[in-house]
Automatic annotation (TrEMBL):
The lineage of its organism: Eukaryota, Viridiplantae, Streptophyta, Embryophyta, Marchantiophyta. InterPro entries: DUF3419 (IPR021829). It comes from Riccia fluitans. Pfam families: DUF3419. PANTHER family: BTA1P, METHYLTRANSFERASE DOMAIN-CONTAINING PROTEIN. This is DUF3419 family protein. Transmembrane segments: none annotated.
Amino acid sequence: VNLQHFPARASDEFEAKRPPTFPPTFLYSLSWEDPREDDKYLQINPDDTVLTLTSGGCNALDLVYQGAGQVVSVDINPAQSYLLELKRAAVIRLSFEDVWKMFGDGIHPKFDELLRKEISPFLSQGTANF
């Protein structure tokens, strides 16, 4: 699957409309749905357009890998959309080992360098600021 065919841009326009009392931080960073269970019932194919909550972004990326023709991912919290855009760029630009260290282990000794050199040039301004 070529993730470059699935654009992911956090909406700066949506961010501007965010209610002022809504914190620009994570409310939750993952969901407990099991994509393998979803696959049994959804039977995703290239003709499908799937709407999903962004959450931590993993389910949206999984739907792409399962072969959905289009994935529309929404979340009231812009931080979740920024995280999805960051994950997408990392998957496209970095090795599996680097992606795993960043998002699986939750720590990468060269995160700042990778972000600056390999990922940031491909992010929307809102995500880069995040």
